[in-house]
Amino acid sequence: MSLPTTTDVVLVDTIQLTANIGADCWGRSREQPVSITVHLHLKPSFLEISGQSDNVLDSIHYGHLTKAVSALSASYTDVRALVHEVTQKAFALAGENVDAVRVVVGLPKQILLANDFEIEVITPRGKDSLQQAAKVSVKDLIIPVLIGVNPPERLAKQRVITNITFYEKAGMHEEIESTAYLTLEKFVLHIVRSSCLASDAIEAVTTRSQKPSALSFAHSSGVEMTRYRDAFQGLQ
C-alpha cells in the first residue's frame, strides 16, 4: 500500500439550496433540491501557517465561501453551468492560494428511481471548468429485474441496487428492466457495455449492483466491474 501524498484542503460539505438546472425527473423545468460540496486544493503547506498561529484569519474563510455559494442564482441552463459558477466563486475567494477547485453537485430528485445523481468536476487554476472532464455518478438506482439461478428467483422480479459512474449521462433503465438474467455478472456487464457505448465522450465506466434480497443474514450480495470504452469498440 502506497503512502498518501501531502495535501492541504479546505472544504465545505453539502451546502443545501434549490435551483432550476433544467428538467427534473418528471421532465418539468423548475427548481429542485441541490447539494453542493466544494474542495479547495491549496498550495503545499499553506495550512501550516494557520496551524501554527491558531488564527482563522491565516486560513481560507469557509464561512464566506458558504455564503457566496448559497447566494448564487436560482436558474441555470444545465448542471455544468452551476458547477462553473461555483468554481469561479471559489477561485475568486481563495485567490492565489488555491491550485485547484473540486466541485460536487448532487441532485437527489433528478432521477426518479435513484437515490442521487452527482456530477464532479476538478478545475486547475487558470483553466475553464466547462472544458474539464466530469465524473457523473448515479447512486442507488433501484431496478426491478428477473435475475438469479434459483427456481423461485425465476418467478418474479426482485430489486437490484445499482451504482454507475461514468462521464456522460446514459439512459438505460427501460432496456434493462425488460430483460432477464441468471447472474449479476451478466447484468453488470450489460450496464457497463451500454454505458461505455452511449457516447464518444465516455472514457470509462464503473458499475456496482447488489441484490438485497439474496441473503438472509447480509445486507446484500454484489458485483462491481470497471471497463474502458475501448474494451467494447469491436462489439458495437
The radius of gyration over CA amounts to: 21 Å
Low-confidence spans: 169-174
Q: Work out the strand percent.
A: 25-35%
Mean pLDDT value: 83
State the end-to-end CA separation: 38 Å
In sequence order, what are the helices and strands, one letter per element? Answer: EEHHHEEEEHEHEE
Tally of individual helices: 5
Secondary structure category: alpha+beta
Please tag this protein with its features.
9-stranded mixed beta sheet, 236 residues, 9 strands, alpha+beta
Describe this structure in words.
It is a single chain. Strands 1, 2, 3, 4, 5, 6, 7, 8 and 9 form a nine-stranded mixed β-sheet that branches. The chain starts with 8 loop residues before the first strand and ends in an 8-residue tail after the last strand. Helix content is 21%, strand content 34%. By secondary structure, it is of the alpha+beta class.
Helix-strand layout with pairing:
Elements: E1 9-19, E2 32-42, H1 47-53, H2 62-70, H3 79-94, E3 98-106, E4 116-124, E5 134-147, E6 158-166, H4 173-177, E7 180-181, H5 184-196, E8 204-211, E9 221-228
Parallel strand pairs: 5-7
Antiparallel strand pairs: 1-2, 2-3, 3-4, 4-5, 5-6, 6-8, 8-9
Helix pairs in contact: 2-3
Quick recap:
With 236 residues, this protein is α+β, with helices and mostly antiparallel strands.
